[in-house]
Inverse folding.
């Protein structure tokens, strides 16, 4: 049976905008499947229980003490530095997931300045001449063994709905700031195979200086996609008809013995405009879901029909929407500004790397469609952990 393992990106790593680099390594180098992502601000109850679990994982008394101190100070809402301790937890599934994630990707603490692992690059472990640990930053926390992984997953599952979710309005900003929340979605082609692309895109967005206050890995269904992109239907009718008329004229102007004019092409294009717009609309739906909506015979099946994966993130801060869209770049990758997401990772008008809300109204509408406005019921994160723990229990 495949194992379920977790990687907890620490508040300091998120605060320093190292999130993208860390996620890039996790997704690209872990020979595992990413199955869930969730933001957390942990309660005192979680911190206390987690601190005790982490303390039991080290044999060196100095490291045990460092773990206790780190978890208590950095994951606690009452931390000495006064920042909101946002954590991001990713769940991975696959063969020997716990050992592989810990040993081969995240790495162990080392006093040697090497960058062959996540901790080697983003973490710090410095001892003084007396052997005491002077600086301790793990960058990412995970279970050191398969045995400890189970109770730690249980704890994360229990606290998922109370300590996890979306945290808009929780961060502090300078007085008078125009605070907005922008939804950004990393599109399906970023997850076609294990690459650094998801992390690299997040790294580009980090240049905005905005705060990540919510995230969700999800399969966009046909029903969601149709509602999400509904505004494009009328837009396609208006914008695509001139191109359709030129296409008709190019194909038919020499096809008859009589003159075929552009006016004739316009009339035919007007007749075909609705079908053409619907075809283009369906192409977008299929790209976002990997399901052709015309092949879904029962409309009720649209609510679950999906074969792709997207990563949605909520960025919050002053003028968040214009900031994110500036670093997103123009819709057409060939016209996008240098060093933007779409100039570097876009392939065409549809496969252009990422989506971002273009207004406050759009952000609210889109967040509601993808389930990132107000959560209700059990989260996917909690469900995945519960199902795995039930399987593990059944094997004992």
């Amino acid at each position: 049976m495949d194992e379920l393992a977790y990687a907890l990106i620490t508040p300091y790593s998120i605060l320093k905008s190292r999130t993208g680099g860390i996620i890039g390594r996790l997704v690209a180098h872990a020979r595992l499947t990413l199955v869930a992502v969730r933001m957390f601000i942990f309660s005192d109850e979680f911190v206390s229980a987690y601190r005790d679990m982490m303390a039991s994982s080290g044999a060196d008394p100095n490291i045990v003490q460092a773990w206790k101190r780190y978890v208590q100070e950095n994951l606690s809402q009452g931390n000495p530095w006064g920042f909101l301790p946002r954590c991001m937890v990713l769940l991975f599934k696959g063969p020997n997931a716990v050992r592989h994630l810990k040993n081969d990707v995240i790495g162990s603490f080392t006093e040697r300045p090497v960058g062959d692992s996540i901790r080697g690059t983003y973490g710090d472990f410095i001892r003084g001449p007396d052997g005491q640990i002077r600086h301790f930053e793990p960058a990412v926390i995970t279970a050191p063994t398969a045995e400890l992984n189970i109770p730690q997953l249980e704890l994360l599952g229990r606290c998922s709905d109370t300590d996890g979710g979306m945290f808009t309005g929780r961060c502090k900003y300078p007085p008078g700031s125009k605070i907005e929340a922008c939804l950004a979605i990393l599109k399906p082609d970023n997850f076609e195979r294990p690459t650094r692309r998801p992390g690299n895109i997040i790294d580009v967005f980090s240049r905005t200086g905005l705060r990540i206050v919510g995230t969700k890995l999800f399969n966009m269904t046909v029903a969601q996609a149709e509602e999400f992109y509904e505004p494009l239907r009328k837009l396609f009718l208006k914008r695509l008809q001139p191109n359709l008329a030129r296409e008709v004229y190019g194909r038919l102007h020499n096809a008859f013995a009589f003159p075929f004019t552009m006016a004739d092409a316009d009339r035919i294009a007007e007749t075909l405009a609705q079908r053409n717009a619907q075809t283009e609309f369906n192409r977008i739906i299929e790209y976002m879901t990997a399901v052709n909506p015309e092949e879904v015979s029962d409309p009720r099946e649209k609510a679950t029909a999906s074969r792709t994966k997207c990563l949605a993130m909520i960025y919050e801060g002053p003028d968040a929407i214009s900031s994110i869209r500036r670093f997103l770049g123009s819709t057409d990758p060939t016209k996008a500004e240098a060093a933007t997401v779409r100039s570097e990772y876009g392939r065409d008008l549809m496969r252009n790397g990422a989506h971002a809300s273009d207004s406050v109204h759009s952000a609210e509408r889109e967040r509601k469609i993808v389930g990132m406005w107000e959560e209700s019921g059990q989260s996917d994160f909690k469900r995945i952990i519960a199902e795995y723990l039930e399987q593990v229990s059944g094997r004992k």
Summary: Strands lie at 3-9, 33-40, 87-94, 124-127, 133-137, 140-141, 179-186, 211-218, 310-318, 354-356. Residues 3-165+375-395 form a domain with the Alpha-Beta Plaits fold (CATH 3.30.70.141). Residues 262-289 form the longest helix (28 residues). The chain has a mean pLDDT of 94.
